[in-house]
Amino acid sequence: MFSQAAKAISSPVPVEWYPTLAVVMVSVGLMLTASFFIYEATTSRRNRSLAKEIVTASIASVFLGFGSLFVLLASGVYV
Amino acid sequence: MAPPLRLAALLVVVVAVFASAARADLVISRADRKVDLTSHIVRVLTSLKVENAGSEPVSKVLLAFPNIQAKNLAAIRAFGTEGKVKGLSSILPIEIVEPSGVPPELTFFSASLHKPLTKGKILHLDVLTVFTHFLQPFPEEITQADSQLVVFQDSSHYLSPYPVKVQTLSIRLPGGRVESYTKYGNTKLVDSELKYGPYEDVLPFSYNPIIVHFENNNPFAVAKELIREIEISHWGNVQITEHYNIVHGGARLKGEFSCRLDYQSRPYARGVSSFRHLIARLPARAHSIYYRDEIGNISTSHLWSDSKKTQLEIEPRFPLFGGWQTTFTIGYGLPLQDFVFSADGKRFLNITFGSPMEEILIEKLIVKVVLPEGSKDIDVSAPFPTNQWQEVKYSHLDIAGRPVLVLEKPDVIPEHNLHFQVYYKFNNISLLIEPMMLITGFFLLFVACIAYMHTDMSISKNSPSYLAKLQWDEVQATVQQIQGIFHQCLAVHDKLETSLHDLSRSGDAKSCKAARKAADAQFKELAKELKPLLLSVQSSPQSYQIWPKLEDLVAKEREMQEKLMARHATVVDSVEKKQRGQDIENRISSQQQKIAALRQEVESLLEYLSEI
After folding, report:
1. 3 state SS of B586
2. Could you tell me if residue A8 is inside a domain?
3. Considering CB atoms only, which of A6, A60, A61 is closest to B341?
4. Where are the membrane-spanning stretches (chain A) (predicted)?
5. Domain around A26
6. B139 preceded by cis ω (within 30°)?
7. For position B267, what pLDDT does the model report?
8. ∠ CA A32-A35-A38, rounded to 5°
């Protein structure tokens, strides 16, 4: 049998926060995605700055990635 | 059809005195047996008072069972205390032994004492034995209207390698009809309790067969196979999925089944032997509970929960009669912190082994513990022997797959619902693999978009339309730059405006002049930047549409600049000459209107350009 020193393990983020985190992170991610595509569509090919594109894309993908993870967790798909 | 007496008869033959010298040392001064026949799992609690009558200390007590009973033995546990009065008892280890010189029809178990029993000392030994498939339905086939009758066979004497001084046997029946029972002297049936004994001074290996034939309509729920999958997610959940294949293990149904007429109208009179629901006791805080089979959700279930447990009552799609079977799946989630712990650098899962269903016999139980991806050093500690092996399962967002520890055990009864532990090592960094995969996925999507927007996909590089497009791109880029410059100009205009506001408040004409000078310099600079851009637009053949607008814009902007400067100069002059505010307002009011109109025009032109 296990000793009394055993410590319960809980999730890194409280489970109750998952729905809120999912909504917030996905919406921020989608806004950044929107700004990325607006930039792609409105700036002419010569004036486009690759650095700006990459930075927007990476921030958007971080938010979308964590957001979709929390969407999965909040909906009961524990990955 | 003869009653199933053959097996018992066979055993009578076995009854012989095999009292070897070593075993004769022990004497059982009292043996009380309580047999519980209320469900289909037979539980026998034997309380023994063992006395060492010899001179040598004894460290083992032998327990004997006929082979036909031993093969149905699902669990045996012994608790012992030494001394005159019963105190706190401790579990004694039990192993199967084959002593020499005993009949092959008997199986022996030996309970090892923690310390040897010396001469004259008394040991209180409680032995709990649980048997499955012990009750034989008789008749073996019944109609829908019949009750289920079963036969129980045992010995009225306690089968033991030691002499027994005093003994009793009491059998608890489920109530209802008792068809027949073997009557000896000292046999009593009171309510639903059948008593044999007390018998005194019985020789070793004495076997005195009894048969009880009685009604038992309790559900004979037997799971042919149960696969229990326990999946740990360190994101906060232990998901349990149980796949049942349940059969009614009692007397088979013969003849036709009439649902509408008989079963639904008078279920208790016309289908007593069937069972229509099962009860599962799930742990507290179980959530996301579902109950379904291959066709989909089964809606006939009820759930109650309190702080200690969650009770789930499920009804299969049809009532189960003898020999009928059904398959279904139940699943539920449990909070991680209730079942997974860490100690000494390792993590472990601590959860019950068997099924949460009440009074169910599982002929083959497979428990699969799915550990998170990246778990290492997997180790298990179970309170009974099991077959073990490892597998790999691929689930959501997996690369290498999740390690699965499989435990298999036949004949599992509710007594096996003990906690077992699975130890493993897991690093919390591995938790980030899944979000990283998602992030990489999204990022690759963006990179694909960037690449698509940056590459030139046209096939013919010198067709007129392609060249025109290139030129148009160039014009567009230049126009965007020009727009930027104009926006800067407008910003400078705003700056001048604010400097005038400051002047009206502070009256500091010097700083206002300085602001004008700076603005003038900025205008010149911007004009210098603008010139080559305008030229390039003008020279491009694609600009015929835009050029007039651009010219207009440049002219308007210049005019606005001049007007602004003039107004600025007038205001500063007037302030220096200490004129009244009202006069200044009057002097510049016409200019003010023009400037406002110009600004509007410039802005609408800029908007027009940005829409191209």
Report:
1. helix
2. no
3. A6
4. 20-42, 54-78
5. 22-75
6. yes
7. 59
8. 150
